[in-house]
Amino acid sequence: MSNSIDSLFADRLDIIPFSGIRKVFAKIRKMEAEGRDIIHWEVGRTDFDTPQHIKDAAIDALNRGMVHYSPNLGILPLRKAIAERTKIDNGVEIDPETQVIVMSGANEGILASILAFVNPGDEVLVTDPNWHHYKSITSIAGGTPVEIPTFAEDNFAIRPEEVEKRITDKTKLLCITSPGNPTGCTQTQENLEALAEIAIRHNLIVIADEIYARIYYGEGKVAPSIFSIPGMAERTVIINGFSKIYAMDGWRLGWTVASPELTQCILKIRQYTTVCVNTFTQYGAAAGLLMDQTCIDEMVVEFAKRRKIILDGLKEIPDVKVSDSSGAFYVFPDISAYGLTSKEMADYLINEYGIATVAGSVFGTSGEGHIRIAYSCSTEECARGVIILKKALAALRENNN
Ligand SMILES: Cc1ncc(COP(=O)(O)O)c(C=O)c1O
Question: How many C-beta atoms lie closer than 10 Å to residue 19's C-beta?
Fold first, then answer.
């Protein structure tokens, strides 16, 4: 028997990578410590502060002694507030007693849902490019992630035929993130209806990540949802959270909404993950959902200004193509004409010009040829970044000629 310590490590560590995004963060921290000035286009979190009334409600709850375990599902006032929000955003009436679980971030919702539905050997359809957690958590559960390619020429809309041809008798879940990370693209109502028809016909559960649904620049204040389509509420798990829209990423608060039957399955797993979320923070989150939403409107107006600066700037750069990112705070330009891989381009931009982006390949095979720009930094930094990016790419073109 081997007595080396690494012989004790679980095999699943070999099938999941260290997060490509976290690697970029580590590099930037080091560069900043060395005194480099960095344009922060790498961070998938807002630069806003949590609104004061949310902090006050959490502090008040803490002072009232809300320091003990909450129910596994979360405190009822927060579940009621989530049900209210679901009615507004998704147009569907749900029961806060049986259909909502407050999670430690959207991430825990994803983890608990995948563990609840994926057996070893099951296949999980994940749109590509996508935020890596879906694939990694599927692998942790012993399942096989199956990438569905999406294309810049379609604004990264999911082609129903690409889904259909990857369905086997092992397919269990279809994961959709809309608006998307890293693309910022939103699936249209028509597209979601086609996907819903496939999910119903093949008896699939859909995991609908709607964490960016309210950071939406299209018609109406909220991106379309597959949960609202007839026949889908019983087979969809909504993943949502407070991190992005209420600038509460460090609070670690999110939720799932699903049918009572699916919620029971997810709850069974959650009882053995985090058990419940910090009780007093849940009171803060409830205030966020229930009280005045103008802070959200203001935040989205600000994001829209930054989006315009970045999109207008990118459109002026020769050989860069941009898709219509209608949501979230990401754009995902195609830089392949410059002849570098996405990793080489991201390295060039950070090393030579101090512009931090994330290589598209980090988000899956279809991400190659692109870089992710997160405009979650100040408007001034976005404008400055565009000027530097123009310079950086002009220098590359010069070199290429
Ligand atoms: C698509 C998507 N889903 C979920 C999350 C995680 O959210 P949370 O902070 O609530 O765990 C992120 C964070 O970047 C994300 O981009």
Answer: 13
82 burial class (0-12, 13-18, 19+ CB within 10 angstroms)?
Answer: buried
d(CA 60, CA 108): 26
Per residue in 191-239, pLDDT tens?
999 999 999 999 999 999 999 999 999 988 899 999 999 999 999 999 9
Give the pair of three-digit tokens for residue 317: 């750069």
Pocket of ligand 1 (CB under 6 A): 44, 105-107, 131, 177, 181, 209, 211, 241, 243, 249, 254
Residue 4 in any domain: the answer is no
Q: Which 3 state secondary structure label does DSSP give 246?
A: coil
Q: Cβ(208)–Cβ(233) under 8 Å?
A: no
d(CA 106, ligand 1 centre) in Å:
6
Judged against a pLDDT cut of 70, whether residue 1 lies above it is answered with no
Specify the pairing of strand 330-331 against strand 371-374.
Answer: antiparallel
Going by the DSSP 8-state scheme, the letter that residue 159 receives in this structure is P
Domain boundary among 262, 290, 318: 290
Q: Ligand 1 centre from 104 Cα, in Å?
A: 11
Task: Give SS3 for 259.
Answer: coil
- Is residue 6 included in any domain, yes or no? no
Mapped onto helix, strand or coil, the DSSP state of residue 107 is helix
Note whether 355 and 210 are same-domain residues: no
* Nearest residue (CA) to ligand 1, atom 7: 106
3-state DSSP assignment of residue 180: coil
253 and 304 housed in the same domain: no
Give the distance (Å) from ligand 1 centre to CA of residue 173.
19
For residues 209 and 238, give the distance between their C-alpha atoms in angstroms, rounded to a whole number.
6
3-class secondary-structure state, position 177? strand
Rg from Cα positions in the chain: 21
Q: pLDDT confidence of 13, banded at 50, 70, 90?
A: very high
CB 375 within 8 A of CB 310: yes
Residue 253 lies in a domain: yes
Domain extent for 135:
52-290
> Residue 365 maps to which CATH number?
3.90.1150.10
Closest to 385 in 3D by CA, of 376, 84, 321? 376
pLDDT at 400: 81
In a domain, 3, yes or no: no
Q: Are residue 177 and residue 110 in the same domain, yes or no?
A: yes
Instruction: Provide the number of structural domains found in the chain.
Output: 2
